[in-house]
Amino acid sequence: MPKLTNNQLAFLLARITLGINFFLHGFVRIPMLEAFASGLTQGFEGTMLPLALVEMFAYAIPFIEVILGVFIIFGIFSKKSLAATAIFIMMLITGCAFKEDWGAVGTQMLYALFIFFLLKNLEYEVWAVKKSSSE
């Protein structure tokens, strides 16, 4: 096993931690998908967002989280996966801002910073299953 630098080890552990977080967020929601989507949709009643759009997105969220989590854990196209995760977080922030749920926005901003940290330090990527040619 090759010796990892501190930066490589830190990056690897941070990447896997974020991936596990996203994967489990989605994985535990899938068995109760109907209740999750319904509860999320009800939370947006009275906002400017169309409930049909919220409901469609609510059903997709757990699957998006699982897919992003798997890609991040295993380092599959990390640059693209992390960029996609950042866009996903932007969408969640937008939704929570429409609800004026500033506590959730603050939490999601921490995710955004974590993703930024990983993208900024992508040069320390190790043990990745598949790197894209542009990484």
Describe the overall structure:
The chain is 74% helix and 0% strand. It has helices at residues 6-29, 33-43, 51-74, 78-99, 102-120. It has 135 residues and is an all-alpha fold. It is elongated and about 55 Å long.
Main sheet attributes: strand count, strand direction, barrel closure: none
Count of helical segments? 5
Shape: elongated
DSSP summary, beta strand count: 0
Average predicted confidence as pLDDT: 95
**Gyration radius, to the nearest Å?**
16 Å
| Structural class designation | mainly alpha
Percent range of helical residues: over 70%
Order of helices and strands: HHHHH
Low-confidence stretches: none
How far the N terminus sits from the C terminus, by CA atoms, comes to 23 Å
Report the sheet-strand fraction. Answer: under 5%
Brief characterization of the structure:
The protein contains five helices and no strands. The two termini are 23 Å apart.
Q: How would the blueprint of this fold be written?
A:
Blueprint (H helix, E strand, L loop, with lengths): L5 H24 L3 H11 L7 H24 L3 H22 L2 H19 L15
Helix pairs in contact: 1-3, 2-3, 3-4, 4-5
Looking at this protein, list some descriptive labels.
single chain, 135 residues, mainly alpha
